[in-house]
Amino acid sequence: VHPNVSQGCQGGCATCSDYNGCLSCKPRLFFVLERIGMKQIGVCLSSCPSGYYGTRYPDINKCAKCKADCDTCFTRNFCTKCKSGFYLYSGKCLEKCPDGLEANNHTMECTSIVHCETSEWSPWSPCMKKGKTCGFKRGNEVRVKEIIQHPSARGNPCPATTESRKCIVQRKRCQKEGKGKKNKEEKRKKSNKDESKETRQEGKGRAARRQNREQRESNNKTQPKKRKAPNKEQDLAPADTAQ
């Protein structure tokens, strides 16, 4: 260390020298040596740079280097991010993941193998042919299932999610577009017409019955009442008695 030690330092240094830079740091700052060519310069930082981890002591806070395969670490034996070509697993950097795990090239970590998961089959669809459900005898019906969990790189792949099979239906003719509505309209008009006809017929029947009744009443009023014929036995009874 250069003998010329200064107390009026800048950049967070408590003591420094012109040759070595910071010799000690102010409270809560970390001391770390930075290499510049063949020379090392002491600096004081609020947090340790990449590849270092911080340790606090009563007299000084220092930044120590992580392992060679570790990019950032919490302690020397616990890495939080590995350098290129290594996979992180339980705080360690590995070239190859253990059995039962797979390498995730996106996160550069060893992760559990995930297998495909699917739902149950749906009910079979209506029997169809060329998108129609009529005009044919033999067609196809389909059922599907949904993927609930996609597999990872080494996981079991998903099975087929669609199944099709032949089907037979009772052949029926297809109605032309708009023909069904037209038939319904015609049936409705015919029904209304029949109802009107029945209503008119009922009206005529009631009118005819009323006319007949009025005719009978009129005849009864104009026709003289018939006298009852005398009872011969009653008329002869007094005479016979007198004899």
UniProtKB/TrEMBL annotation:
Residue ranges with Basic and acidic residues bias: 175-219
A GO biological-process term: Wnt signaling pathway
Pfam family, one: TSP1_spondin
Record's keyword terms, sorted: Disulfide bond, Glycoprotein, Heparin-binding, Repeat, Secreted, Sensory transduction, Signal, Wnt signaling pathway
Entry's Gene Ontology molecular function annotations: heparin binding; signaling receptor binding
Subcellular locations according to the entry: Secreted
Domain Spondin-like TSP1 residue range list: 116-170
R-spondin Fu-CRD domain boundaries: 11-110
SMART domains reported for this sequence: FU (SM00261), TSP1 (SM00209)
Presence of keyword Repeat: yes
GO cellular component, one term: extracellular region
UniProt-annotated stretches for the region Disordered: 174-243
Role summary: Activator of the canonical Wnt signaling pathway by acting as a ligand for LGR4-6 receptors, which acts as a key regulator of angiogenesis. Upon binding to LGR4-6 (LGR4, LGR5 or LGR6), LGR4-6 associate with phosphorylated LRP6 and frizzled receptors that are activated by extracellular Wnt receptors, triggering the canonical Wnt signaling pathway to increase expression of target genes. Also regulates the canonical Wnt/beta-catenin-dependent pathway and non-canonical Wnt signaling by acting as an inhibitor of ZNRF3, an important regulator of the Wnt signaling pathway.
Subunit relationships: Interacts with the extracellular domain of FZD8 and LRP6. It however does not form a ternary complex with FZD8 and LRP6. Interacts with WNT1. Binds heparin. Interacts with LGR4, LGR5 and LGR6.
Similarity comment: family membership: Belongs to the R-spondin family.
Protein name from the UniProt record: R-spondin-3
Organism: Melospiza melodia
Lineage: Eukaryota, Metazoa, Chordata, Craniata, Vertebrata
Gene giving rise to this polypeptide: Rspo3
